[in-house]
Design brief:
This protein has strands spanning 3-7, 10-12, 18-25, 34-39, 46-51, 57-59, 67-72, 77-82, 91-99, 102-105, 109-113. It starts with a strand and ends with a strand. Strands 2, 4, 5, 6, 9, 10 and 11 form a 7-stranded mixed β-sheet that branches. A 4-stranded antiparallel β-sheet has the order 1-3-8-7, with no helix packed on it. 0% of the residues lie in helices and 53% in strands.
Length: 115
């Protein structure tokens, strides 16, 4: 059974930093691409960053240069380092893995960027 558990969200001032973690279980973690998505209030869920099984990364234009995705295959964990946070980064951040039989999501962790 696939489980994804996010942590690390919270309230941060504009310009601040946060590091999100997503612990995975129930999958052969090292073989899967892992993604971070976010959903702002009243908006659709959007892709933030993805890291493939080889460690190649891709980012949304809105976070390029400020966010960094990484993975630890031994710990079965994917991270999202977020710097220079802006109010528009506020939202629930979700971890995602795509398997042959569908998408799996965590419960999400709330990030609020506000002074």
């Amino acid at each position: 059974q696939v489980q994804l558990v996010e942590s690390g969200g919270g309230l941060v001032q504009p310009g601040g930093s946060l590091r999100l973690s997503c612990a995975a279980s129930g999958i052969f973690f090292r073989f899967y691409d892992m993604g971070w998505y976010r959903q702002a209030p009243g908006k659709q869920r959007e892709l933030v960053a993805v890291i493939d099984s080889s460690g190649n990364t891709n980012y949304a234009d809105s976070v390029e240069g400020r966010f960094s995705i990484s993975r630890d295959n031994g710990q079965k964990t994917v991270y999202l380092e977020m710097n220079s946070l802006k109010p528009e980064d506020t939202g629930v951040y979700y971890c995602n893995v795509k398997k042959f039989n569908g998408d799996y999501w965590g419960e999400g962790t709330l990030v609020t960027v506000s002074s």
